[in-house]
What does this fold into?
Amino acid sequence: MEAIWSAAQARLSHRMAMHFRVAPLALPGDQPVVSFTFDDVPQSAVARGASILSDYGAHGTFYIAGGLVDRPSPDWKMIDADGVLALHRAGHEIGCHTYSHARACDLDADAMACEVTCNRRYFQSLDPDIELRNFAYPYGIGSFQRKRQLGEIFGSCRSVVPKVNSGTIDLQFLSAIPLESGRFDASDIECILDETIAKGGWLIFYTHDVASSPSRFGCTPGFLEKTIQKARRRDTRILSIAEALQCFGA
It folds into this structure.
């Protein structure tokens, strides 16, 4: 019964976070942007994902929970400290994913503040120049109760609600499209990119591992590279979350 109640509370908190804006921003409408983001982060996202982006002169945003770095995972090999430093030194953005990967809806204000502080301390212990400017909700579950608090700390919070960001958006609940090899095919990606161009929107992709045989949460290197190429052919700018916010004057 407790688990059912917890799930119901999480759904309600997520829906409220989705519909009640706390940080509205009107996008210009004539500057389509594509961002590639990676959650958790598997080591393959560094070895393959980041390197592919770098090959195209682009940066990604990697949302990492410091408490998971170099820890065992049933789905993939997790990023280690050297991987974090490699991302940072290559110009990619390190984002916050809480420290323990706890759901935002399960944390009160003090617990969330502690999670953020612990994550910042961890990454600054690796390199004092690492700044956590943007946040992604662990498991994609938003929290109406924590949304305003997070908005006072981070420039944005990313969800996993699958749509293109366009018109007036909520910076504390950015939508994102899953880049998973089994979820969309090449024609789907073409349609999503065309919608982004038509709306002058901000398309945010998210994935996890980037491997020849990815988990159901990830994609192959070829799928990632082809998606980047499709975006390039449309002359969209490929920017990290922080770079995009700067572009939009946020």
Summary: Helices lie at 2-19, 43-55, 81-89, 109-126, 144-151, 186-199, 221-233, 241-247. The two ends are 43 Å apart (CA to CA). The CA atoms of residues 208 and 218 lie 5 Å apart.
